[in-house]
Amino acid sequence: MASTDLAAFDLVSSWPVERVAVGAIDRKGEIHLFGDRGTFRIASVSKVMTAWATLIAVEDGSVTLDDPVGTDGCTLRHLLAHTGGYGFDTRDAIVSPGKKRIYSNTGYDMIGAHVAEHVEMDFDEYLAEAVFAPLGMDGADLLGSPAKDVHCTIDDLAKFAAELRTPSLIAASTAHEATTNQFGDVEGVVPGLGKFSPCNWGLGPEIRGHKWPHWTGSRNSSSTFGHFGGSGSFVWVDPVAHIAAFSLANREFDDWAMQYWPMFSDAILDELGRK
Prior knowledge:
Blueprint lengths: L19 E6 L5 E5 L4 E2 L4 H14 L16 H5 L24 H15 L3 H13 L5 E2 L7 E3 L1 H12 L6 H7 L9 E3 L3 E3 L9 E2 L17 E5 L3 E6 L4 E7 L5 H18 L3
Antiparallel strand pairs: 1-2, 1-11, 3-5, 4-5, 6-7, 8-9, 9-10, 10-11
């Protein structure tokens, strides 16, 4: 049962958006929700859901993280960690795999195609069967690219955040690997934020590390992992605090998000850290 009793939710009234929904999961696992219960496009938060489905396919033996995909030397692991060498939206490799963290929608489209081929099912159907259905994400649907086109409600995102916080669809060891930095201290760019060295990333989720400024809060631990989307969405899990927070909005990510999201995250950590 979700509650809406957090003082931190009052901050949302100042956000310059027409539609918004937010949520958090406290240390006891209770879900707190507030705002619009309608459907939103979650943009690049889709990548974490795509990654989770891919890791399920890894565990059932349909694919492996070492599968070659794309240019010579590129593997599924490289693509999940944005080190495949592909540009943001081009099929041409820019650098050799593993050399640089280049954020790539193309890489995630390639992941979806590779998994679909090996599970013998369209990727949107596989994502629904492997992730959405078992988690009860009844309002979630992939309506295009595995990199950016999942649509869902805040209730759906809460269920996925709960899965990230306490995995049930994949083994704990797999989840640990997914949220551990891949390919060392390579530099890279977080879209909308800038260049970081190192630019820590797991197998799907971004890892906060010591990046600053950042879309999470100043109180978030360096182990915090998650993703934000260009449509105004985010989800993070802080494994040190054992707290998660997430949001959906109908305004594209820009300076407004960097002004309000970190304050919201800090307020969530402060309030739920005392419960």
